[in-house]
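Complex record, two chains
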Amino acid sequence: MDRQYIETNHIVDRYLLGQLSETEAAEFEAFYFEHEDIFEEVRIQKAMQESLAQEMRPVRTKPVPASALQNWLDRLMPVGLARAAAAVLAVAVIALLMQNIDLREQEDVLILTDVASVTLAQVRGDSVPVVVLPAAAISGGIRLSTNLGPVGYSKVQLRLSREGGTWSWSAPAKIDPVKGTIDLVLSPGTLQRGTYRLTVSTAANGQSVQLAEYVFRISD
Amino acid sequence: MISLRQSLFSDISGEHRAVMDFDPNQISRRIGAGDKTAETALVQHFSPRLMFMLRQRTNDEQLAEDLHQDTLRIVLERLRSPESIAEPEKLAGFVHKTALNVYIGYVRREGRRNTHAGGDLFDELPAVEPSQLDDLLREEKISAVRTVIDGMRVERDRDILYRFYVRAQEKPDICQALGISSENFDRVISRARKRFREAFTGSTKGTST
């Protein structure tokens, strides 16, 4: 690895974005350990990437962590019992719901009828397409489908948040690395009226990297 | 009063000076002879690189700090020992390799632990709580990056930045999606870097308020 190779192949950027192979990353690290000017470039680029990522996101929210399932159970049971049940059930139910399981297989876990199915379109660039769903149409729950195309990852992190920072939820999920499809099934009452943002991220070199973002709105 | 941007840049400049004085052969020999000031010089020289590398790999400040300490301890013990290292001129490579081994050892231990516990990589990602200083520094960087974005008159150039830095898409994919050449991509990225560098560090040269 030399300066020409680093420049031509955007090694600094790709290192910071976690896009280098382990061998390349180690080789590049060894290089910046020895070359002060390259190390300075890496630090400047890191500052730029962090700032761009923060500044260019379409919408920035400051969500307050909350559990949709917790809220749902709270409405059905006394608070103490709901919390105890949620602690036991949340991980199992959410994990099952998040792992592309066919709806028929979920019937022994959580019976959902009249589930609305919606395929979301990715937000690209500055354009923000918003899928509008009438609240009445999702009274039986909702199945959100996404299709990222080949991603090369088998695990992702999903994050769903309501615009305005009033609600957010996240969980790990499995993804078909070839098709890039994820089906997210949400129980009745999980989503209230408002605009929601769903992001799909993965981890590379210990960093979280966003793969896709979807926006939809629940209306009257 | 020195601004945050200036202090950050001063830090980088200060390190430049340290590098110019850093002679790996001499440092290795002095540490072997029990010279504590040489140990301090070694720590000052390699700490920023070690911390950067380990933060990048772990995304965890505290863990990076722990692994960084382990690395320095191993390096210093080796340099103090009669065997020392075979090629003192390759001290940087030795420090890096030691850090890599320390990190790999940690990952293997954690991997075994996570397998038994049924853990997930994402469970390990820390929630970062920024300090007030972090917030202020971020504002400085945001200001510089706004200069970059505002300087882009062509919407497609902004899209290139967005896809590359925010979406972390690969260059070939971006070129194909936007129908641009590799050279065009390189020009946009190179110009953005240059503008950011100038905006972020340019005003720090020779002035203090």
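Note: The helical segments of chain A are 3-8, 11-16, 22-34, 36-56, 68-76, 79-98.
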